[in-house]
Amino acid sequence: MKRIVRWSILVCALWLAACASLPVSDPLTVTVAGIEPLPGEGLELRLAVTVRVQNPNDVAVDYTGAALTLELNGRNLASGVSDRLGTVPRYGETTFTIPVTISAFDMMRQVFGFIEADARGEVRYRVRGKLEGGWFGTRRFSSEGTMQLPRGPPAAVGG
Fold it and tell me: Reduced to 3 states, what is the DSSP secondary structure of residue 141?
Protein backbone atom coordinates (compact mmCIF):
# COMPACT_ATOMS: atom_id res chain seq x y z
CA MET A 1 0.00 0.00 0.00
CA LYS A 2 2.86 2.37 0.88
CA ARG A 3 4.42 1.65 -2.48
CA ILE A 4 1.22 2.72 -4.32
CA VAL A 5 1.03 5.95 -2.30
CA ARG A 6 4.69 6.79 -3.03
CA TRP A 7 4.23 6.15 -6.75
CA SER A 8 1.06 8.25 -6.78
CA ILE A 9 2.85 11.14 -5.08
CA LEU A 10 5.78 10.85 -7.50
CA VAL A 11 3.50 10.81 -10.55
CA CYS A 12 1.56 13.86 -9.27
CA ALA A 13 4.79 15.75 -8.58
CA LEU A 14 6.10 15.02 -12.09
CA TRP A 15 2.78 16.03 -13.63
CA LEU A 16 2.76 19.35 -11.75
CA ALA A 17 6.38 20.01 -12.73
CA ALA A 18 5.52 19.36 -16.37
CA CYS A 19 2.57 21.78 -16.25
CA ALA A 20 4.67 24.45 -14.54
CA SER A 21 7.31 24.21 -17.27
CA LEU A 22 4.85 25.05 -20.07
CA PRO A 23 5.59 28.48 -21.51
CA VAL A 24 3.29 31.36 -20.64
CA SER A 25 2.36 33.38 -23.71
CA ASP A 26 0.31 36.43 -24.54
CA PRO A 27 -2.80 35.96 -26.68
CA LEU A 28 -2.64 36.52 -30.42
CA THR A 29 -4.21 39.70 -31.77
CA VAL A 30 -6.52 39.01 -34.71
CA THR A 31 -8.28 41.69 -36.76
CA VAL A 32 -10.34 41.62 -39.94
CA ALA A 33 -8.19 43.23 -42.63
CA GLY A 34 -10.60 42.88 -45.57
CA ILE A 35 -13.74 41.28 -46.93
CA GLU A 36 -14.30 40.36 -50.60
CA PRO A 37 -17.32 38.64 -52.21
CA LEU A 38 -17.06 35.07 -53.50
CA PRO A 39 -19.49 33.18 -55.75
CA GLY A 40 -22.32 31.78 -53.61
CA GLU A 41 -24.57 28.77 -53.95
CA GLY A 42 -28.34 28.82 -53.61
CA LEU A 43 -29.39 30.98 -50.69
CA GLU A 44 -25.88 31.30 -49.28
CA LEU A 45 -23.62 34.32 -49.40
CA ARG A 46 -19.89 33.56 -49.51
CA LEU A 47 -17.14 35.97 -48.51
CA ALA A 48 -13.35 35.84 -48.41
CA VAL A 49 -12.36 37.30 -45.03
CA THR A 50 -8.73 38.38 -44.77
CA VAL A 51 -7.46 38.35 -41.20
CA ARG A 52 -4.30 39.86 -39.78
CA VAL A 53 -2.71 37.83 -36.98
CA GLN A 54 -0.13 39.49 -34.73
CA ASN A 55 2.08 37.43 -32.44
CA PRO A 56 3.39 39.40 -29.41
CA ASN A 57 5.50 36.45 -28.20
CA ASP A 58 9.12 35.36 -28.50
CA VAL A 59 8.14 32.05 -30.15
CA ALA A 60 6.75 31.61 -33.66
CA VAL A 61 3.28 30.05 -33.98
CA ASP A 62 2.98 27.29 -36.58
CA TYR A 63 -0.52 26.37 -37.72
CA THR A 64 -2.04 23.72 -39.97
CA GLY A 65 -5.51 25.18 -40.35
CA ALA A 66 -7.83 27.92 -39.15
CA ALA A 67 -11.47 28.38 -38.18
CA LEU A 68 -13.37 31.67 -37.89
CA THR A 69 -16.80 32.76 -36.65
CA LEU A 70 -18.23 36.28 -37.04
CA GLU A 71 -21.09 37.53 -34.83
CA LEU A 72 -23.07 40.78 -34.96
CA ASN A 73 -25.20 41.82 -31.97
CA GLY A 74 -24.75 38.40 -30.37
CA ARG A 75 -26.07 36.57 -33.43
CA ASN A 76 -24.05 34.28 -35.67
CA LEU A 77 -23.35 35.93 -39.02
CA ALA A 78 -20.74 33.78 -40.78
CA SER A 79 -18.36 30.91 -40.23
CA GLY A 80 -15.63 29.26 -42.21
CA VAL A 81 -12.52 27.10 -42.16
CA SER A 82 -9.24 26.87 -44.05
CA ASP A 83 -6.64 24.13 -44.29
CA ARG A 84 -3.86 26.64 -44.98
CA LEU A 85 -0.44 25.91 -43.47
CA GLY A 86 1.67 28.75 -42.17
CA THR A 87 3.66 30.44 -39.45
CA VAL A 88 3.14 33.66 -37.54
CA PRO A 89 6.71 34.82 -36.84
CA ARG A 90 7.90 35.73 -33.36
CA TYR A 91 7.04 39.39 -32.69
CA GLY A 92 5.56 39.48 -36.17
CA GLU A 93 2.37 39.28 -38.14
CA THR A 94 0.85 37.60 -41.15
CA THR A 95 -2.36 37.84 -43.16
CA PHE A 96 -4.37 35.05 -44.74
CA THR A 97 -7.84 34.53 -46.15
CA ILE A 98 -10.60 32.29 -44.81
CA PRO A 99 -13.70 31.68 -46.96
CA VAL A 100 -16.85 32.09 -44.84
CA THR A 101 -20.51 31.33 -45.49
CA ILE A 102 -23.58 33.31 -44.47
CA SER A 103 -26.81 31.33 -44.62
CA ALA A 104 -30.13 32.90 -45.64
CA PHE A 105 -31.45 32.33 -42.11
CA ASP A 106 -28.47 34.10 -40.56
CA MET A 107 -29.03 37.02 -42.95
CA MET A 108 -32.70 37.26 -41.87
CA ARG A 109 -31.69 37.23 -38.20
CA GLN A 110 -29.25 40.05 -38.88
CA VAL A 111 -31.94 42.17 -40.55
CA PHE A 112 -34.07 41.92 -37.42
CA GLY A 113 -30.99 42.61 -35.31
CA PHE A 114 -30.23 45.79 -37.25
CA ILE A 115 -33.78 47.01 -36.69
CA GLU A 116 -33.16 46.65 -32.95
CA ALA A 117 -29.64 48.10 -33.22
CA ASP A 118 -30.90 51.20 -35.03
CA ALA A 119 -32.57 52.32 -31.81
CA ARG A 120 -29.22 52.05 -29.97
CA GLY A 121 -27.20 53.54 -32.82
CA GLU A 122 -24.47 50.90 -32.57
CA VAL A 123 -23.66 47.34 -33.57
CA ARG A 124 -21.68 44.92 -31.38
CA TYR A 125 -19.32 42.57 -33.22
CA ARG A 126 -17.24 39.59 -32.19
CA VAL A 127 -14.65 37.57 -34.12
CA ARG A 128 -13.71 34.17 -32.67
CA GLY A 129 -11.58 31.39 -33.99
CA LYS A 130 -8.53 29.25 -33.71
CA LEU A 131 -5.25 28.47 -35.41
CA GLU A 132 -4.79 24.71 -35.30
CA GLY A 133 -1.36 23.61 -34.19
CA GLY A 134 -1.69 20.09 -32.88
CA TRP A 135 -2.46 18.85 -29.38
CA PHE A 136 -0.65 21.56 -27.46
CA GLY A 137 -0.19 24.15 -30.20
CA THR A 138 -3.78 25.22 -30.95
CA ARG A 139 -4.21 28.95 -30.29
CA ARG A 140 -7.71 30.36 -29.81
CA PHE A 141 -8.46 34.02 -30.39
CA SER A 142 -11.31 36.44 -29.85
CA SER A 143 -11.83 40.11 -30.60
CA GLU A 144 -14.92 42.21 -29.96
CA GLY A 145 -16.13 45.78 -29.95
CA THR A 146 -18.82 48.13 -31.20
CA MET A 147 -19.35 50.11 -34.39
CA GLN A 148 -21.46 53.24 -34.57
CA LEU A 149 -24.21 53.15 -37.19
CA PRO A 150 -24.26 56.10 -39.58
CA ARG A 151 -27.03 58.57 -38.88
CA GLY A 152 -29.43 59.54 -41.64
CA PRO A 153 -29.31 63.03 -43.17
CA PRO A 154 -30.75 65.79 -40.98
CA ALA A 155 -34.37 66.68 -41.64
CA ALA A 156 -34.92 69.77 -43.80
CA VAL A 157 -36.07 72.82 -41.89
CA GLY A 158 -38.51 75.27 -43.37
CA GLY A 159 -40.39 74.95 -46.52
Answer: strand
For 8-47, give the secondary structure using H, E and C: HHHHHHHHHHHHHCCCCCCCCEEEEEEEEEECCCCCCEEE
What does the pLDDT average to over 71-94?
92
Q: What pTM value is reported for the model?
A: 0.71
- Whether residue 7 is contained in a domain is answered as no
Whole-number Å distance between alpha carbons of 156 and 147: 27
| CATH number of the domain where residue 132 is located | 2.60.40.1820
Q: Is residue 107 part of a domain?
A: yes
Average pLDDT over residues 101-126: 78
Domain range enclosing 33: 24-148
